[in-house]
Amino acid sequence: MTEHLLELSADQVQGEQHLIELGRLASQFTGAVSRSQLPDAVERALTAVERADVLVVVTPVYRGSYTGLFKHFFDFIHQDALIDKPVLLAATGGSERHALMIDHQLRPLFSFFQARTLPLGVYATDKDFENGRLQDRALIQRAALAVQRALPFLESASRSASDDRSLNVPACAHAAAA
Q1: How far apart (Å, rounded) are the C-alpha atoms in residues 102 and 59?
Q2: C-alpha–C-alpha distance, residues 136 and 125, integer Å
Q3: What is the DSSP string of 79-113?
Q4: Can you spell out the DSSP letters for 21-74?
Q5: Distance between CA atoms of 158 and 109, rounded to whole angstroms?
Q6: Residue 121 contacts residue 106 (beta carbons within 8 Å)
């Protein structure tokens, strides 16, 4: 899902993209209680999120919400770092019954940061994928529509980015173990 959304946004707006996979960083930050305890790799990931022009955030659903690992990572983000930052929200889960977690869990989390959550989220289940790629036509169209509706925010961020740097679009993803 994350790669698909990044590809769609790259087709529309030129910029630098960074994929932050929380699962790979997990062992380096799960025991930390303050940012000063974090190793450089985690600090770089946090800084990439805080300095991003736009965020694409994808998480698996675990017991009706985002995972504890996802929340723990965002606990280290400075509370003012995401003000007015456009955020495209997406999630994956085992069934359609968790689809509203984007609006009931993710959106309030990013509202705390005063981020601009984009109006259309993208939710997928296991059956929407084949060989790790999105296959469901309706979902592919929804993802394209979410990125299309995000374009004014992406283009605005691109214009406000200085001439010596490209648009910075990190995707923060937490992949569930299969």
Answers
A1: 10
A2: 10
A3: TTTTTT-EEEEEEEESSGGGTTHIIIIIHHHHHHT
A4: EHHHHHHHHTT-SSGGG--HHHHHHHHHHHH-SSEEEEEE-BTTB--HHHHHHH
A5: 25
A6: yes
> 46 φ, ψ to 5°?
-60, -45
Total-model pTM: 0.86
Residues 6+ apart with CB under 8 A from 153: 54, 86, 116, 118
Superfamily for domain range 2-173: Flavodoxin domain (3.40.50.360)
pLDDT for 13-53, tens place per residue? 777 888 899 999 999 999 999 999 999 999 999 999 999 88
Per the CB < 8 A criterion, the answer to whether 99 and 138 are in contact is no
Q: Which helix (H) or strand (E) holds 122?
A: strand 122-125
3-state secondary structure (DSSP) of residue 75: helix
Domain regions of the chain by residue span = 2-173
Q: Give the residue among 108, 107, 112, 113 at the shortest CA–CA distance from 90.
A: 107
